[in-house]
Design a protein that fits this description.
Shape: elongated
Oligomer: single chain
Helix content: under 10%
CATH topology: lipopolysaccharide transport protein A fold
Radius of gyration: 16 Å
Length: 154
């Protein structure tokens, strides 16, 4: 089964230079490495659940959480995914944490809910929720607080 995962597009928040280079965050390869303690698949319903120590990785992206629910079409391509139970993700030096993340691949939208924390080096941002439009890399945060280091003068 092939999985498509973009749960750490939120890392683009703290690393805008990545957007400017037009380098794909997850690379051209469509394969995702997957580890889980258990995988349950309902082929007729087009649903799957991964539980236990779940890790998805693709390119620079590594996502870990206790549970991921997936929906897939007949091809099978994943069309929707939800990570829950406390999601952590790392990409290019950015670490993200949220209670849950939902990815709608048809709409190309990633929603993080329940309190989001992004950190990179000594900088950090928290928000009640975050929405990332994957195609445009447009990020919207609600109820934001944070601390971003400032470069020292000469």
């Amino acid at each position: 089964m092939r999985l498509v995962s973009v749960p750490l597009a939120l890392a683009l928040l703290a690393a805008p230079a990545t957007i400017a280079r037009a380098e794909p965050l997850l690379g051209a390869d469509s394969n995702v490495s997957l580890q889980a303690d258990r995988l349950d698949i309902d082929i007729l319903a087009g649903e799957a659940t991964l539980t236990g120590k779940v890790t998805l990785s693709k390119g620079d992206l590594v996502v870990s959480c206790p549970r991921i629910d997936l929906r897939f079409d007949q091809t099978p391509h994943v069309t929707w995914a939800k990570g829950s139970g406390g999601v952590t993700a790392d990409v290019r030096g950015v670490h993200a944490e949220a209670p849950s993340v939902e990815l709608d691949l048809a709409k190309q939208v990633l929603d993080l809910r329940g309190g989001v924390k992004l950190s990179r080096g000594q900088g950090w941002l928290t928000a009640d929720s975050a929405r990332i439009e994957i195609q445009t890399a447009h990020v919207s945060l609600s109820q934001v607080k944070g601390s971003i280091p400032v470069a020292k003068g000469p």
